[in-house]
Design goal:
The chain has six helices and nine strands; from the N terminus they run αββαβααββαβαβββ. By secondary structure, the protein is an alpha/beta fold. β8 and β9 form a beta hairpin.
Length: 191
Amino acid sequence: MNYKRINEILKNDGVIAFVTDTVWGLGCLPNSEKAVKKIYEIKNREAQKPLILMSYDIYPLFDYVRQPIEKEAQRLIKRHFPGALTLVLTKSVNTPDYMTSNLPTVGIRVPDNETFSNICKNIDGHVLATTSANISGEPPALTYEEAVKYIGDKVDLVIEDYGYKAQGRASTVAGFKEGNPIIFRQGEIVL
């Protein structure tokens, strides 16, 4: 994998496509408003649908959420990260409004996929603002070939999966109300 090229693309407001444990994703650096806007354009995505943050480990993501995080969130992180769970938490001042559709929260996730982990370990900041690799309303890409077909001409780079395939089921998205988890989207993980 050419990490130097990936970093150059991201630093120059670029958008990359990559495999995760669930479906293929699109991503950019969270602090690149230009690249975030490009993701919305690529997908024809409604502005009120926020992107989420993903990394190879929970620690780089802590900068983007308000501390301390809820006890129940900590328990779910220990149990399901890395994995197909997206947690919606109160964001910190480091999370740009343009990435979260001006919402006070941000979704965070640590995919269980070796190729994705290696990308994040080797990029500046170790965090990507992400969404699924597809046009809104269409099914997400599940293979390298589908990613190339669906959005290959719209992104700056589609990264090979190196044999680490997407499993095809979306992540469960959960938030919290008065300390208890609430499910926004039921996916792979049952809480």
